[in-house]
Records
---
Amino acid sequence: MNILVINAGSSSLKYQLIDIANETMLLKGICDRIGMKGGSINQKTADGRQFRLEEDMPTHKEAIELVLKALVDKEAGAISSVSEIGAVGHRVLHSGEDFHSSVVIDDEVVRICEKNAELGPLHMPGNIACIKSCREVMPGVPMVAVFDTTFHSTMPPKAFMYGIPYSVYQQYKVRKYGFHGTSHKFVSEEAVKFLGAEHSRIIICHLGNGSSISAVKDGKCIDTSMGFTPLEGLIMGTRSGDIDPAAVEFMRAKLSMTPEDAVQFLNKKCGMLGISELDSDMRVLEKAIEEGNEKAALAVEAAAYRIKKYIGSFAAALGGVDAIVFTGGIGENSSYMRKLVMQDMEYLGVEFDFDENEKRAEGLHMLSKSESYVKVFVLPTNEELSIARETAQLVAADKK
Ligand code: ADP
């Protein structure tokens, strides 16, 4: 069965067509500038054939129609008819407290997503608009919502509660939710398979433009670094991560920002970009460090130090750790970041192989020495495959 995986933002829509029988990606593409002038679609098949078209897409509906056209294109598509799409998996940012796993989409699911839109005002409107358009353009094709948050829904209340009045939590659902769930789920499942142990305590470090860490015990998330929104936790590319809320109010007044500006500032102008005053991209920062840029070095050191502290606290939460896994663009590719994080970790039972860390490798790459009590490895994430797997499973179960 072919699964169309859709990751829709407010003005862009990324998609992949995956043949789930052998878990291969047939093609991937992106629609840009939805709702604006100068829209375009770019698609590439696994064997390198390209489809490009400049066309305005006033809404997500026109974007989906364009995607279907590209999928069946004679020269650069991968299927000959839309009927070859067995199901659609939608990445949806926020489940609120209403869902604890992925769900087959029906009218009620859409209604609940609309109710929860205020929890993710930047992403949810695009997610919902896309789901509605897809249901209109592809009637009868089963669709599944795969949430960024549900993998973390196994966190116990002591982990997800903030120190705020219980009534405020109850009324407004202000609590830690956690994000990047599809990645943490995929990587922890693959890690559990690899470790082959009945019981496991794993720390997953998903380090990309957005970064988060999760603590996974026997396959279930017990804590994670992102919070009510993806802003909490690590120092990321452009996000501040943990910060004293009183410092935010102080800066807001000094820099004459509105409350909305202040949240935007913390999301877009801070993190490694803010500290380095140069860039959020790890490759640019590494190059600058080589050239002696001290602020770039400080940005990466501060980010690494925050990761190290989270690993320590999650090891405590898990009551010990069997494996630390790196994933995401930085986790998979930046030996520099991994080295900074893994220095002086012997106290935890880690014997990190700093030479192996410098070697490039495809797939799972062991970075700890054979005698290390705690295994450390890189495991490439695949969020689209994770969504496709969930979608196929739910659709099959729904048909029974
Ligand atoms: P997103 O969160 O947008 O999915 P990614 O997981 O793709 O992001 O990660 C992007 C980050 O990975 C960027 O900071 C980028 O510089 C970094 N990255 C990608 N390749 C390398 C590399 N070879 N060396 C160092 N950093 C890398």
---
Amino acid sequence: MRDILSAGLSRRHVMAGLGGTALAGTMGSMARAKDLLNPPPSLTQLAQSTGRKFGSCIASSHLRHSGAIVQNPRYADLVLNECGIVVPENEMKWQAIRPDAQSFNFTEMDAIAQWAKANSIALRGHTLLWHRPKWFPEWLNNYDFGAQPASEAARLLTHHIETVMKRYGGQIHSWDVVNEAIDHDGHGILATSLSGAMGSGEDVLDLAFHTARQTAPEAQLVYNDYMSWEPQHEAHCNDVLRLLEGFRKRGTPVDALGIQSHIEIFEIDPATGTGPYREKGWRRFLDEVTGMGYKLIVTEFDVKDKALPSDIALRDQKVADFTRRYCDLMLSYPELGDFLAWGLVDKYSWLQGFAPRDDGLEVRCCPYDDDYQPKSMREALALAFEQAVPMA
Ligand code: GLA
């Protein structure tokens, strides 16, 4: 081990390549040792060549230690090998850290932050306000804002944002300040207990961004949403444009649009053999967003494969094709910064529960399969990063 380390590889690289527990067996193999000395570039190394980082969400349950053992060392090693940045899957949300109006519970979020710091991997903040009653803690939906509801709502929100940002401020430089604030039916900002108390959704969102700017003046502040390139997302894209225009008109400090990128093959388009997508409309959308001076960031990339046939090889190839089309388009924008996946290994993806396939088979939505083997989707990402336009 000391020889390999002295050959100029970082310990992180070597440990990731060794796959943690398979240390002895791996050391015996000359071919593998050669791989270790000349490891193929990781996704984040490829992304780095055009100024970006590749990353993924991560759950604290994968990292928890029992004694010196990480709970899921293979997952942790894979993240360390491929990623330059991670984001908490759920551990920073109000539902996770706010048991009630008075207290905070940072146990799980701290575990992620400490692990990222110990491994010199960057961390994003997600999210300071998911402005959707379904994702508020129950106590917040039913909160009694008292005789002066606007000032109590402002106090509560400001206190939350300042507390979280200050705790992780030295480590996090890009924050999803607000997540998914749009009402699809009403086409405006969703009504929540906070907007009811403060008088309007705009007031809530503006306060969130102003507070974030004051608390961390250098940080990138992001509005994050799931508008996407599928035809059924056109109205949502227009709603997001109106929201972003409003931010600019009111001087709300928003730096970037987070494009979640849970892209979906919901039917087969005979023209492409994968899912239908709006290339021109989506480019128009991105052009309008960047034209207003916003940067872009891909925050939660994965692929729903619902309409694809059961056959695994065929399915993986179609998912890879769709990935490549999407990434080539996104990575043609110099305004696009980091690119984060929402999970690396199929079996741990939220989509297994949220969007199960009709045939009952596992959704193949991530770059790695359940045995931690790279799929063609990983290759598609690598090729897209290799050919990306440099980040501005
Ligand atoms: C949204 C949220 C994420 C996550 C996914 C589903 O995209 O922004 O935090 O909850 O849904 O897992």
